[in-house]
Amino acid sequence: MQTGSCIMKVNQHRTMIMLLRHLLAIAILPFTVAVLVPIWIAQRNGVALALGRSVGPVFLQVAGFAVLTLGLVLFVASLRRFATEGRGTLAPWDPPSVFVVHGPYQFVRNPMISGVILFLFGEALVLLSPPHVAWAVCFVILNLIYIPLVEEPQLERRFGDPYREYRRHVRRFIPRLRPWRPMQK
Fold first, then answer.
1. How far apart (Å, rounded) are the C-alpha atoms in residues 18 and 36?
2. Residue 78 sits in a domain of what CATH number?
3. pTM
4. Which of 56, 113, 159, 168 is deepest in the core (most CB within 10 A)?
């Protein structure tokens, strides 16, 4: 009976550590990008959440809310895959140890970043804020530079031929219409 209790405590400890690793990575990366920076931009530019005064702006806000929600769902689904299948976090200093190619990763190589991009553009539309659109564009440009120069070479070194095959079939940000499935050996 004691052995089973010990194993349960070890598993609870591992689960708690993984949860803390994820919370730290989320607090540092996407929370900063999608919440802290936009709050700073809003304060600096006098942007406040307010309902549009005519049909056009209200339509943009509703569309923005839909885009923001889609981005959040994509981000959470991707994060869940990293945690459960990849056994790692979204942080470059604590990456998954297992190559993840299921769920949203079957359609797009960077669903987490795609989710954040959608969230930022949705946020800009909800706020009807050109400065927030500029921030979203800057975030896209930063990732268009960082991912191919830094992240993809690291993934290629870590996962080798399976990653190279995946990269040949799945685009970086624009999703496929049909899911990609690796060839079974």
1. 24
2. 1.20.120.1630
3. 0.84
4. 113
* 1 CB-contact burial (10 Å; exposed 0-12 / middle 13-18 / buried 19+): exposed
Question: In a 10 Å sphere around its CB, with 0-12 CB exposed, 13-18 middle and 19+ buried, how is residue 116 labelled?
Answer: buried
CA pair distance 109, 103, nearest whole angstrom: 11
* 73 is a domain residue: yes
Does residue 175 fall inside a structural domain?
no
Over residues 100-109, the pLDDT tens digits come to 899 999 999 9
Residue 80 lies in a domain: yes
181 assigned to some structural domain: no
Write out the residue range of the structural domain in which residue 158 sits: 2-169
Q: Using CA atoms, how far apart are residues 167 and 162, in angstroms rounded to an integer? A: 9
Pairwise CA distance, residues 74 & 95, whole Å: 18
